Structures are given as C-alpha cells and as structure tokens.
Amino acid sequence: MDKREFIKLAGLAGVAALSNPAGVLAASPARTATAPATGPKAPFELPPLPYAFDALEPNIDKLTMEIHHDKHHGGYVKKLNDAVNGTAFASLSLEQILNKVTAKDKAIRNNGGGHYNHSMFWTWMSPKKTTPSDKLKTAINSAFGSWDTFQQKFGDAAKGVFGSGWAWLIVTPSKKLSVVSTPNQDNPLMHQIVKERGLPILGIDVWEHAYYLKHQNRRPEYIEAFWNVVNWPEVEKQYDMAMK
Q: Hey, what CATH topology would domain 3-52+61-123 get?
C-alpha cells in the first residue's frame, strides 16, 4: 500500500498529512454537488505533494512544481486563513465555505478556491502511467459520445479560458458528467457564483504559473502533456463518490 492509499484509508482526501490534516478535505461519500462534507476547518494547512517535485517530468518540470506548490498554493492557504479569521466562515469546512461564498467575499473566494483547486489538482496527477478503467470509459463515452470527443471538449475548455482559470470534468447535481471552465480560482462548488454547479472529479490548472517555465506560451502543448500524468484511478474514485 503506497502512502497516498494509506492516507485515504485514514479518512483524508488526496494529499493530507496524517499528523495534521487540518488543511485537506474529508474523503467522504457525503461529498456531492449539493451536500458538502463535514471536513477540517480553519486554520487550513498546505498539504504535501504525494510525489517528488521532479516526478512528473518531462511533462511538468521540477521547478514549476516546486514554485507552484510551495509558493502559489502555500500563499493561498496563508491568505485564506487570514481572510476567514474572526468570521463565520472559520467554523465551516472548506467545501462548505465554497458553497456559501459570494462575489462580495473576494479574498475568501479567491484563496478558498485556490486552496481547494490545488489540493485536488495534485491528486489528479501521478508519476505512474495510468489508464482509465472500462467502467470510467463507458461512463465518459455515454456522456460525450466517445473518449476522443471528451478529450477534445476538455482540451477546448482549457484552451478557451481567457487569461487564468481552470477546466473541469464534473458530476452535476443531476448525476451527469459535464465539462465546464471557470475563471481565476473559481470552481463548480461555488453555488452562489458559477452558472454550472457540480462536483469536480478532474481539473486542469491553466494559470500561466502552472506551465510557463517549460511550455512558455504554448498552452495546448501543456494540455497535451497533462494527459500523460492524469491519475485515472483517483478520477474514478471521485466519480464513484459523487455518484452515491
């Protein structure tokens, strides 16, 4: 059993540290598009990567991963804790915060989204070559017509983000698979903000800091490289939880 699997069995999601899980979401069947899990509350903490900084090379380089995780994600965590301190949001789990946040809660919106999005993003990638199961392929083929159509739709959503943002594969409140995109650090859990709500089961960060050191302005090249490191077993686990 590898470290990530052991952590999940301990009741945490993705990359939580066993000794101090306060910064990571609970892995629970209660995680649906409309009913957030009861997870750790503030103060949130930066979870460690479940692999080495250079583990995703040559697709994503070591320096990018180091800066992206330690500086960018770490910055979101610090600013989120500052933003929720002394507010009603401090008593909520991260997912509950995202469900309730509005456009007027700018700092909480941006940094809460940044913390959630990146905590999930690290788990959706793996240094090990993985392939989608027949079960997941069937679900995706049923939703989009074919696997190639899904990849094209997801890629087009990522390419089409103007400036910074994310593309997502989500399970909607009606239990359907859909591809959507959001600007900045918004995500489909932000029910008061986004038009298309849902539970993300796969996402790609298309902020320039996610790829510029290696791929420079060639976002399509980065998106193509991303497919080489997708952690399909993790995607399927998230899909199974979302469908319960």
A: Helix Hairpins (1.10.287)
